[in-house]
């Protein structure tokens, strides 16, 4: 609070002295809180009245502070009435106390007399407490928590009044005195009722909206009842009577309003709506008579249901504005409460940080708090906007959007807070965090309901609102252009060229994916989701426009600034047309012409979006380089090449030199993408120059060819290099635009490798060196290219799991060992062709080892408990991007005239593997998502991919049978639809709604990677030296010193591989954490055994520092959190090694608080049997967790270790049973003392699960689920009856 006050005071205009006043008010409040804390100190000995007075001044001070910042939302009159009602309760209670004293004077039994005095005193105390409470909360009574406090204080008064009356009745039989007590008590009850009614009226926002409110509410509720009473004709008819009365009230109210209306137009509208309503009511009454006459006839009931539905629609139409006002009002209140509850939870999280023993849980909580803190201002802004412009649709939509955006981060924060509570050692901080999380969960549930209802009421306007937003953006960009022309465009605070360029790059993808959503929704005719997609498109375009303006303002080149603003304006113009077309397409879904128009407009927008990205600094230079490569490559299209003018040796050495330069330039391009935009411009320019030189050298070599066939082959290889070079620049361009894009780094590395491989193929074909020489050169180039993988492995390099990496390292090291022996053996014997082959095999094995080492290092880094574990989204964008790349490469190989039958077959296999993986991912995504449009789109995309794959496979079979030009052409034609289908799917899947959150590697994680990376780098370095040495030995095998150098390198390579294997094995994810956790839980089991022995000998020390309710609450929350972790641990142990360490560490951190709370609860229980039950069940839970950890350690996250999976499943089942047992005991104990919080929480949790949609893979059949539902429904009914 003090931070906020300082900031506000600094921002306020001091002419009026308001900043100083605000600080003064804040100081007064801080002083009042300080006084209260002093008064309640146990050693202060202050009288009770001092405490109450101190509390009252806090209320006054907080009211002053709110007034200073203009936030006193409760009017003075309301507060005055509240205080006078509280005083009325106090006066009535004082009268009751007097009457009770009269009874005490005549009571003969002293015990009974004392009871009356005690009850009267208690009554006086609870009343003074109520008045003090009213003083404290009256300025902030809009908060549900404050309302609850006052209502609780009221209940205490009510209870003390009852006790007082009971004590008086027991003490005397004097009917006259008892009558006076009873009358005084009823005055207190009435005054109390008035007070609470006043508070509740504020809670429901006081004034009913218009005269239709009550009637409309009744109609809505009763029609619901009619729908749910289908089959019970009697009940339906009863409800219909109530409904008829409510509609007749509403019709009368509307008619009288129409008569009083001055505006004739409005009067007509009201009368027409009233007539519509009256007609619907008449139809409903008829249907009700029919149903009453024939209670068994289902058709009549159906007719009544339909008539009620019609009436509901008519009511909605008639009272639409009133209903909408009320719904938006409710949303404003809910949003305010959610923002307040979230702010409280963030404060509680910060307070708990110091004493949280689990850093990983605290880290997660901090992250989720940050995410929520980013959303709070938008939510508050939404509320302000809606309140300021009550009739403005776009303001209401902004509130709905900010509310819906708030729900997900809010829910995440609730779960993070609940997960952190058990490991917070400071009791007060833990209780505060737990309470705040509960309040936030309640506020979010209310916000969810309110925003859904408001969305239904205002939803259809979303498309228009999105259109308005886009038009506004277009005008803003026009203004920015005018400012730029006059050199008046300045960057906003915090905007830099690099930041804005990155924002623009990443947002362009979001725009593309939300447009893909928009097209799909409009094509399916789904109005609700088209509205959502239009809104998301508008949001993304807003960010794009801001970034474009920022780039234009930050760049020093006026022409570039103008181009950027123009292209961004084109994007806005096209987008407005697209949203307009989508709106038209909704009117006639399935109309081929409108679909076609939509697709055309979308293409145009996509084109202008690319133009916009191409205006970014550095991009232009890459485009120039790409153009230059394209121009140079035209030299390869001539029919005949001029004969070479240079001697063969000279041409060959020039080609080798040019190849080395081009390979180095490719590495520089890769490196430059990590630097500033200027670096990439320079690197791509140098690359295109080197490409020119290389091409000339290649054409010179082609001129040396003896036959036409050889020449065609050389030209073919040069074309491949040209294509690979263009791909490298395109990959560099897209990575520099959006460095965070999934898999972009890997695609760039793959493109660089493709350049190296195509250079190697050409060198192998063209040069005539001594055998073995070019193989060595090729190998060195390949090793140079893969070295970059080990620089900073912070994203996955391949799909390999940790255990696949170990297997890959083992296999490749075996191959490398054999080929290294072959290299020295063949160099000795002078068998150079075999020597060359061994070098090639060694190079491939080294590349395989590097890839496996980089992937293993990545997995080790993210599995460190201090690293942030990633969260799986609906789809894995890296998988989609990788499949897209692989399918494109395979299709290219299929249609390449130089491909052999075996290459065609291998390309076909790759296509089949990746398309089936994509179809599978689509199926799972479709079953997981609750969004019906996405559901259908994933299914549709999977069908398109599957069908186009089937067509391609047919043409491949024909090609396999006969490698004719015609068949190859058919194959080429069949690849186009597949590539298009896969690209469309990848664009749709990159929607932020579906994407996973990548893992973040901590500094500890990076340290854990170090041994693997060092070993792999040493291996590559020494292998390069070894190949260079072997190259000179192949020419001159009779050179003893060189042999000893070769032996030295060979020894270093062997050692580094051994150390690589050891490092990977030692760092197996999760193993170390499992060991630590097993030790921790063993210690906890020993503690609980000690406590059990103490309990048996009746010497278990009671914990006096905390109440039994608080202990039960702690125990319940920690057991629930343990229960939530069982399935994630089992899943990680069976096949997600990277997650195992995180989950196991989290589980172990809960056992210390579990034992503390369990022993505490047991120490407070008087019944020895119950005491032992709690301790035994806790011990069983700890033992089952230990069993689980042993099984998880054994499984280690290896999907291939099938023999361990049954043990993991069994251990998980036992652990779930142990959790259930202890929860039953705790719930029984809680219900005995009247605590139902935990049970209400679990019901709320079940309800929120229903909102999440269906699970992806149903385990049983329909009948299994049906039986289970019936069984539990019956059990619920029976228990409810018993209650």
UniProtKB/TrEMBL annotation:
Domain Talin R4: 330-454
Cross-referenced SUPFAM superfamilies: A middle domain of Talin 1, alpha-catenin/vinculin-like, I/LWEQ domain
Subcellular localization(s) per the UniProt record: Cytoplasm
A Pfam family matched in the record: Talin_middle
Domain (Talin IBS2B): residue spans on this chain: 458-619, 875-992
Domain Talin central: 1-66
Domain Talin-1/2 VBS2, residue spans: 208-323
InterPro entries named in the record: Alpha-catenin/vinculin-like_sf, I/LWEQ_dom_sf, ILWEQ_dom, Talin1/2-RS, Talin1/2_VBS2, Talin_cent, Talin_cent_sf, Talin_IBS2B
Main location: cytoplasm
Gene3D superfamilies: Alpha-catenin/vinculin-like, Talin, central domain
Segments forming domain Talin 1-like rod-segment: 625-766, 1070-1234
Coiled coil regions in record: 463-490
UniProtKB keywords: Coiled coil, Cytoplasm
UniProt name for this protein: Talin-2
